[in-house]
Amino acid sequence: MKQLPIAARIYVSLVVLAGGVCLGLGLLQSSFANPFLLASLIVLSSVCASMKVSLPLTVSGSTLSVSYAVDFTALLLLGAEDASLVAAISALSQSVFHQRERNAPHRIVFSMATLVLTIHAAGATLRLLGMPSSDVPTVGLVAPLIGGAIVYFLVNTGLVAGAIALSTRDNVATVWHTNFLYSSPSYFVGACVAAAAAWFMTSAGYCLAALLFAPVYLTFRTCKIYLGRIEDEQRHVKQTSDLHLATIEALARAIDAKDQTTQSHIRRVQYYAVGLAQAIGLPPNAVQGIKTAALLHDIGKLAVPEHILSKPGPLTQEEFQKIRIHPKVGAEIIASVPFPYPVAPLILSHHERWDGKGYPNNLSGTNIPIGARILTIVDYYDAVTTERPYHKAMSHDSAVALLKHEAGRALDPALAQTFIELLPTMMAELAAMPEEGQWPAPAASQLDDNTAGLLTVTSGRSAYENIALAHREIYALTRSRRRWAPAWA
To answer: What residue numbers bound the domain in which 460 lies?
Structure first.
């Protein structure tokens, strides 16, 4: 909970408070007229809550649960007061059982509160539209059923979309459209199943009504198998993508290694950026885009002369203008690569400032992509804590003080504060990780004489260290030639 932005914390707290009040008042007003039916629906809803399928086509990794039909049935048969208890226990079961990763307590309580509020909103809609009694012809159910399903869908998905949008600082309408609009048909199908089950229970008895859930279960199994195949295909695509990204990463780090002052810069920036993106709850696809952009954010420096990058002093205005082109150059290079997530816009904007005084487009505030704002913060911190030709490395405390000073000026203030809070943990984790480039040496039997000789020369140094050493020699040789060149040369 502490890792969420303040607005998201307030929103989650208000939803949980409202859900708790509704549940408490509902239980106080309930007469529990049919305790056997209530207990049966609680058990059935809890069992169905574990029957959920992951939806690999969504950005947020959403799931679809069969328990919605049971919750709606409880609403039709028992009213919102008792049905809210069924829904709350169903949400608890869905959040706790059969989970690959343990859900945070605030997520569990928020899910329960969301369903309680949804049940009460849908129940109010049914009453407003004149929900008929069980002895009225079925046609009288149509308007209330459609209205209740629409409200149930909008309130349930809207509350969740609001939490995601505030956590990621994205537009709530975009989040809702991307992650939840596709699921609207399932709510109407579930409402129809619930209406049929409610009619069977009041007309034919509970035993026959239970048969209605057989086709629901078969549908669930069919969807699970089908989506499982899609997930397998996506896993294969991801493995291929990871292989390509690993190749790009090796080349990017080789480029980074040629500058002895910024060795391991990419590694640290990438680690900090991913940690910050995950901490604020960005979806996996966005995190992967930030990870890739962190890897390639300085690739545009290939267009900047080496003597400017290595100049041990302040740059002239002309030299600084040449430095300023590297975000555009980097974005142009990456724009031709069909990444399945935004990368080029993050590279283009990673030198923009919160106050609008950055470059190349003078963007300000939330007009800067959130991934670029993350890159700006972590790149800023790593730059000032690293020895560079033009400045000495700052201590951690001095760098943190500078981050606080620049919050609201160069840096997103909320993200900067979150990053400062996460820094001690991330620094400890990064320090515990092995140094990059430490690969096991191949067996001598696998090498020819020439290769063995090369490894003898480079033994004890990583590949990146050898690249850095070669460029230091080239740079030293170039400076030596300039020093001893004749006046007429």
So the answer is: 449-489
- The pLDDT assigned to 297 comes to 87
Q: Is the domain of 388 the same as that of 469? A: no
* 142 or 278: which leads in pLDDT: 278
- Domain assignment present for residue 443? The answer is no
CA distance 235 to 246: 16
Please say whether the beta carbons of 56 and 178 come within 8 A.
Answer: no
Take residue 166 and report the two structure tokens written for it: 């505030």
- CB-count exposure of residue 414 (10 Å: 0-12, 13-18, 19+): middle
The CATH number that applies at residue 335 is: 1.10.3210.10
Let me know if residue 444 belongs to a domain.
no
Say whether both 226 and 292 belong to one domain. no
- The predicted-structure confidence for 98-119, as pLDDT tens digits, reads as follows 666 677 888 889 989 999 999 9
Query: What single letter denotes the amino acid at residue 29?
Result: Q
State the CATH number of the domain containing residue 57: 1.10.1760.20
Count Cβ atoms below 10 Å from residue 101 Cβ, excluding itself: 5
User: Which of the listed ranges 39-43, 176-180, 406-410 does the model predict with the highest average pLDDT?
Assistant: 406-410
Dihedral of CA atoms 86, 88, 90, 94 in degrees, nearest 10, equals 180
Contact 157, 186 (CB under 8 A): no
Domains held by the chain: number: 3
Residues with Cβ < 8 Å from 486, sequence gap 6 or more?
none
Evaluate whether residue 188 is within a structural domain.
yes
Is 238 among the domain residues? no
Place of tokens 């969807």: 223
Q: Model pTM?
A: 0.51
Adjacent-strand bridge partners of 388? 391
Residues 299 and 408 occupy one common structural domain: yes
**Per-residue pLDDT at 139:** 55
63 and 193 assigned to the same domain? yes
Question: What whole-number distance in Å separates Cα of residue 86 and Cα of residue 454?
Answer: 70
